[in-house]
Amino acid sequence: MEKIDWKNLGFNYIKTPYRYLAEYKDGEWSKGTLTEDNVLHIHEGSTALHYGQQCFEGLKAYRCEDDSINLFRPYENAKRLNRSAERLRMPLVPEEMFVEAVKEVVKANEGFVPPHDSGATLYIRPLLIGVGPNIGVSPAPEYVFTVFCMPVGPYFKGGLTATNFIVSEFDRAAPMGTGAVKVGGNYAASLQPGKEAQERNYSDCVYLDPATHTKIEEVGSANFFGITADNQFVTPVSPSILPSITKYSLLYLAEKRLGMTAVEGDVYLDQLDQFTEAGACGTAAVISPIGGLETGNGFHVFYSETEVGPVTTRLYNELVGIQFGDVEAPEGWIEKI
Ligand SMILES: *Cc1c(COP(=O)(O)O)cnc(C)c1O
């Protein structure tokens, strides 16, 4: 194995030796197997290629101090994959099959799970795609479920820092479209606004609710949260937001561990003054503090353009501590490999 510089990993594709592959034909899943082939051979008529009939997940494996390996709430990813599959008329992947596939892949690539103190993790990507001969707009005759993984660095190499974001004029999803499921189509729609934001030196863009463009919905490919002066942890609620497992974990931790009031409600763009801190959260982003937000109507600074607020810091330490096995986890949150 090539020596990996754990401290300088980014979020890039790295080939690890093994991936899991199962095929769905004639109404049933084949027994999944591990393979070393990282190229998919699929039919040119596959619906995943033409009509975006595909969905995915993202989760991480964490190396603990005692060298054991943690998965963080993988059954939540299994459930969400199936909600995505249902929305796009794809077959469900049994939850046990999903979690077993993830565990097998992590075990088989164990040498690529970064050391505890590196801050790096093993990123795991489950993927479900429609394949087989098809040209009309209808669900595919067959499906492939695959799980692959690679080591990735911490989102912030120099520790937690705040960065700036900009509100996009584009929508990533329609009001009753596919915003609430993890499908590639939402990401295709986000590439242009995301690039435009980065070209203007913002970390990413913030999407407003597609029906009225008055409320905050998503932060790039992460969920938004705000902290109020009276100790509330607030996240937006909408049928076009992707329900982040990290977000629901933070809602729980804010209430049970930090004694805050956890609120899911509307976050109006013209009421940002209520927040003393704000951030983005997700598996990849972990917790990314939002320094300032260009709203199109002015630049709003939350806690500080560079410094991280005290509540965000406490939430980050609690969440990451649980994931890496340094802080006691709520019942059922950790699956050992
Ligand atoms: C995956 C994803 C998130 C984060 O969800 P987690 O379960 O916390 O990783 C947020 N927004 C979008 C659009 C996503 O696809």
Enumerate how many helices there are, as a single number. 6
> What gyration radius follows from the Cα positions, in whole Å?
20 Å
Number of strands: 18
Major sheet attributes = 9 strands, antiparallel
Bound molecules: pyridoxal-5'-phosphate
CATH topology annotation of the largest domain: D-amino Acid Aminotransferase, Chain A, domain 2
Helix content: 10-25%
CATH homologous superfamily identity of the largest domain: D-amino Acid Aminotransferase, subunit A, domain 2
CATH class of the largest domain, please? Alpha Beta
What's the shape?
Answer: globular
Strand content: 25-35%
Modified residues (N6-(pyridoxal phosphate)lysine): 182
Keywords: Amino-acid biosynthesis, Aminotransferase, Branched-chain amino acid biosynthesis, Pyridoxal phosphate, Transferase
Catalytic activity: L-leucine + 2-oxoglutarate = 4-methyl-2-oxopentanoate + L-glutamate; L-isoleucine + 2-oxoglutarate = (S)-3-methyl-2-oxopentanoate + L-glutamate; L-valine + 2-oxoglutarate = 3-methyl-2-oxobutanoate + L-glutamate
Family: Belongs to the class-IV pyridoxal-phosphate-dependent aminotransferase family.
Summarize this entry quickly.
This protein has 337 residues and is of the alpha+beta class.
